[in-house]
Design brief:
heterodimer, A: alpha+beta, Aldehyde Oxidoreductase, domain 4, 5-stranded mixed β-sheet, 18 helices, 29 strands, B: DNA polymerase, domain 1, 6 helices, 44% helix, binds FE2/S2 (inorganic) cluster
Amino acid sequence: MNIANVSRRNFLKGSGVFVLGAALPARANLPDGSITAAFEPNLFVALDTDGTVTVTSHRSEMGQGIRTAIAQVVADELDADWSRVKLAQAPGDAKYGDQNTDGSRSILMNYDRLRDAGATARLMLRQAAAAKWGVPLEEVSAENHMVAHAGSGQSADYGELAADASMLPVPEKVSRKSEAEHRFIGKPVVHVDNGDIARGKGNYGADVKLPNMATAVIVRCPWLGGGVAKVADPAPRPGLIGLEVIDPAPPAGPMFAPWGGVAVLAEDTWTALSVARELEIEWTASPNQSFGSEPLTAELKAMLESPGQTLFDIGNVDAAFDSDGQELSAVYATPFLGHMPMEPPAAVASVEDGKCQVFASVQDPQSTRGLVSQYLSMPLENVDIRVTLLGGAFGRKSKPDFVLEAVELSKRLKRPVRVQWTREDDVRHDYYHAASAQFHRAMVDEKGHPTAWLQRTAFPSITTVFSGQALMPAEWELEMGFTNLPYRVSNQRMESAGIRPGVRVGWMRSVCNIFHSFSANVFADEMAALGGRDAIEHRLEMLAEGGEMEVPGMQPPPGHAMDIGRLRHVIEKVRELSDWDRERQEGTGLGFAVHHSFRSYVAVVLEARMEAGRPRVTNSYVALDCGTHVNPDTCAAQMEGAVVFGLSLALDGEITMKDGMVEQSNFHDYPMLRMNEAPPTTVHVVPSQGRLPAGVGEPGVPPVAPALSNALFAATGTRYRSLPIRMA
Amino acid sequence: MRYELSVNGQTVAVDVAPDTPMLWVLRDHLDLTGTKYGCGGGYCGACTIYVDGNIARSCQTPVSTVADMAISTIEALHENHPKLVEVWEANNVPQCGYCQSGQLMAAAALLDRNDSPSDADIDAAMTGNICRCGTYTRIRAAIHEVAAYDATRKGSEEDAA
Ligand code: FES
Ligand code: FES
């Protein structure tokens, strides 16, 4: 709280009330740089002589609980006293290894490494004590921040041993705790940032304030690739610094280039916003002005009518379709979506004396560092990227275009600049989760099972952002719920097609799994209905009995092949959890969907009905198997959040473009699910400790929208094959 | 224009344009960044403050309209609602946390006027606050928990009396 400071200064100045100018002292709570302490055996642990343990998180926190999880893992192996553990946030630096917080893989990639970091420090503390006391290492224990030798009765706090331990060579091999010895791993620990957040002290990108900092609000060209033809000078007003024109981004393959426009620079946000609102700007043309989302969707659907690029082909699908039997086919479509993180993009940059410092809510500070270094032609070591808390991200903040804007403006102004995106900027200039369409055609036997299955998918690839030529979906995009589906049929073919959009594509939480899970789960439900079958019974029959499944194109790391037994288990669990066999109330339906993504297994059942023309979800049930998990409460929270996220997109998620311009602008025309529509959620986290850890942040989302569509079919008999779900 | 304001029990003054929303006065001029910008249009509730004890969207509240009123923000909430803040933390209500200042302010205001809110009361009081991370079920549970705690405490005070 700085009000107290204000009063103090006011007293010092001797006037009645202190009048605050634009220049305020810098806030104390800037995100950390590198940590120094008495004992730093590795990148993740620092121990001070007072016993304070500082654990460094090199991954970005956006609500998925990673800072807490990292601390849990390190502190457990260190056997620290939790109340004496602090967190530091790593700047972008290759020495940490991968820092790209994307793809639900922070724990998967770092679990063993973090355990070793904690275990190394613990071993060295024991070694230091053994040497100090002249006793054998094996007789020295370390527990709860205390090293002890039972024989002699000697003991010492970790802090007391920090200096001695720092003199020892770092051991190359350490042993990790057994599962039974875990004190924090696998326990529902309270998140480390909750205290700050609940007191308004959480520090996000927009909260950073540097001395002499200017604020910029940028009026961007409504279409991608356009720039400023003419802008009238605004009337001078207090606090206004001036305008800066930003060059247009390339109309194709814009990567992370700043989007062209006019930056209004001011001493405070409101002045910048007020002037920005009144600016009169003429824009230059761009080929993207002919782009529209409706024609794009029509084109995607048309593409599905002829063969695409074959990705997988077994048996003879065409011959099977010529034979007698029941045939089923359907087309599915999903729209463009916006990420809408609660905190719109914001970044602070200071370019001075050949150095650049950035404070921002970015998902990958390391690649941001590289980009800034390249952008400024400045050596990498002169670029310092500090990561604040991310007020939500969902993929948006892995695109650091907003950081480059701040860097460019600070360079020109020769003072620190904060770029504040408005919500309107966010809605209109996102990297959009791309629209898509799928075609499914099957020959179905009397039990509702496919004997032949043709699947086609078409969507604009994210690679169109990185290259002006890219057209086809990338292999990894297709491995997200399409080529890696767990259903194998003797005649099966999968095909894909691509298209170039006139906007920037950037995937949202769970990527292509959103639409692939939607079409596959609804089509499976349609096959079950055709056979008059129970959806869950039917689905279990569609799966192999168990064992690992080879999925085309997908090369999972060892231990991460798709395990059909685990998939079956979450289905059975959600059946039980939802009391699936209960009697349905008139007009209410239960809908089921299951999906494997980010190496986790998630099954969802939703209870829903139509109420005054709008779906009403009255209950939700989720079973998750994510392998070894660090914090089961975080897992549950992520599933609860995924239900809300999935319902938001299923009910209202639709960004439309016309003449190259986005038609929505804020929460009134791009609504989010709110409290009054959020259903109760029951989550079961499958005890799966000992298996390799898998993703948690994203895999809850893909089954939600299809479960809703299936529930509404059960309730009303109407099939909803397009998102968002709207009454015909 | 110069305005004298009462913020979290302190008197402060700022020199800003009359139409400056309290959101930016707090964030830019008083360094109280707990009040968040989410939409600037009154849609999301991230900027919720109290003006004379009533909920207000600070992005829709020009400084000129509140000069004589008592303003309080998330930074002071824990002083009057320690149990609410404690339950919020202990139940891992926040995810990214960005909406939570507004959620807490709205929840406290609800509990101030209704000591045993029903689910429908919670819907009515909290539907103006968007949480993109989807923490609604935990917010609901936390409000019920605080209300139950307050009821027990009141009960035991009455027993003692
Ligand atoms: S920022 Fe004020 S209601 Fe959204
Ligand atoms: S906790 Fe992230 S928006 Fe609510």
